[in-house]
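User: Can you help me understand a structure? I only have the sequence.
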Amino acid sequence: MKASRTDRGAEGDEPEPVDEGDRGVYGISVTADLVGTGVQNLRLYERRGLLEPSRTDGGTRLYSRNDVTRLGRITELLDAGLNLAGVAMVLDLQDDLAEARRQAEEPPADAPGGPSTSGGPGDAT
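Assistant: Let's start by predicting it. Here is the structure, written out as tokens:
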């Protein structure tokens, strides 16, 4: 299970471990430079729900490598002619597809460890 974007557990708990790709490390100006867009665009994408950067206790946005990758996809889709509503739909579908692929790779929790060797219907003995 992924850790929260804020990197904190319940109050008084130790911080939860976070995937390095999810850890916010870039400020908004650095992220805007990396992606080649303006800081106002990043704020707009956040307001529209296209991404959710982590925040410091003081409220400063911190963008992760995964956020920068997502912003690259947003830029590509905008350059292809989609509007922000279309970008949101495509990103949601891509996220759903990635989740479905992850689930398909995992064996079901209640599945036995391997193929059945006991004689069942259709087995000739």
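Now, to help you interpret it: The two ends are 45 Å apart (CA to CA). Residues 1-10 have pLDDT under 50 and may be disordered. Let me know which part you'd like to focus on.
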